[in-house]
Design goal:
Keywords: ATP-binding, Kinase, Membrane, Nucleotide-binding, Phosphoprotein, Transferase, Transmembrane, Transmembrane helix. With 238 residues, the protein is α/β, with parallel strands linked by helices. Helix content is 56%, strand content 11%. Strands 2-3-1-4-5 form a five-stranded parallel β-sheet, sandwiched between helices. Helix 3 packs across helix 9 and helix 5 runs parallel beside helix 6. It is elongated and about 90 Å long.
Length: 238
């Protein structure tokens, strides 16, 4: 939970009093036509109300009335290549960041670029996803909401991550395979169909769809903005 620092309270009090005092002094001058009297009243009022405002701010800062503490979560996007996971995750990250959430993003493609020797066998995929999931759980422990987007095709590795996290939100991006192939932004499906790359999820390697995800979204049926709003509404209730 973010609390108001003493320094911030002082600066807010000063900035407000400058505006309010000038207003008071101007009103006194309008009615009396005396600059000296206007300055005296303005100065006295500023000193008195500065103290009251500071005390008021500090008292309210100690009260939790009207505050809502947000519980950090691990929001895990899973789905086929081209389903829209990364696009959704990026949009959600920007939305939460703009609303001052403490949030970090972990993306499968970016992490594989950092660790390029990560393989694609079932064992290697599971090991890779478990490592990232463990990292996400540690960030969550320290009050950070994590938005992760990984194909993560196997239930066992996703279940492992769930077991490590306090608040795990599985978002299944269920866009159909044929739609993902039509998009094929990176041309990976074409290469997989030609046999130029192997162990490609959805073609010659299985994808085990979540059985009970917290959220399911088909990006061929919903816009990115609508999908993000759906996710935001859902995670506020979790």
């Amino acid at each position: 939970m973010i609390r108001e620092s003493r320094t911030r309270s002082v600066v807010k009090a000063l900035s407000w009093r400058i505006v309010a005092t000038l207003t008071t002094a101007a009103l006194v001058y309008i009615f009396t036509k005396r600059w000296d009297f206007a300055a005296y009243v303005g100065g006295f009022e500023a000193t008195l109300k500065l103290m009251f405002f500071y005390a008021h701010e500090r008292i309210w800062n100690k009260l939790n009335y009207g505050r809502k503490e947000y519980t950090p979560k691990v929001i895990w996007f899973t789905g086929l290549s081209g389903s829209g996971k990364s696009t959704l995750a990026e949009a959600l990250y920007k939305k939460m960041k703009s609303q001052n959430f403490k949030v970090e993003q972990l993306d499968g493609d970016i992490i594989r670029n950092i660790f390029p020797k990560t393989g694609f066998s079932k064992e290697e995929r599971n090991r890779h996803v478990r490592r990232v999931g463990f990292l996400a759980s540690k960030l969550e422990e320290n009050g950070v909401t994590v938005i992760a987007s990984f194909i993560s095709p196997y239930r066992e590795s996703r279940d492992f991550i769930r077991s490590q996290c306090q608040n795990f939100v599985e978002v299944y991006v269920s866009t159909p395979l044929e739609v993902c192939e039509e998009r094929d932004v990176k041309g990976l499906y074409k290469k997989a169909r030609k046999g130029e790359i192997t162990q490609f999820t959805g073609i010659d390697d299985p994808y085990e769809a979540p059985e009970n995800p917290e959220i399911e979204i088909d990006t061929s049926q919903h816009t990115i903005d609508d999908s993000v709003e759906m996710i935001m509404k859902r995670i506020r209730k979790i």
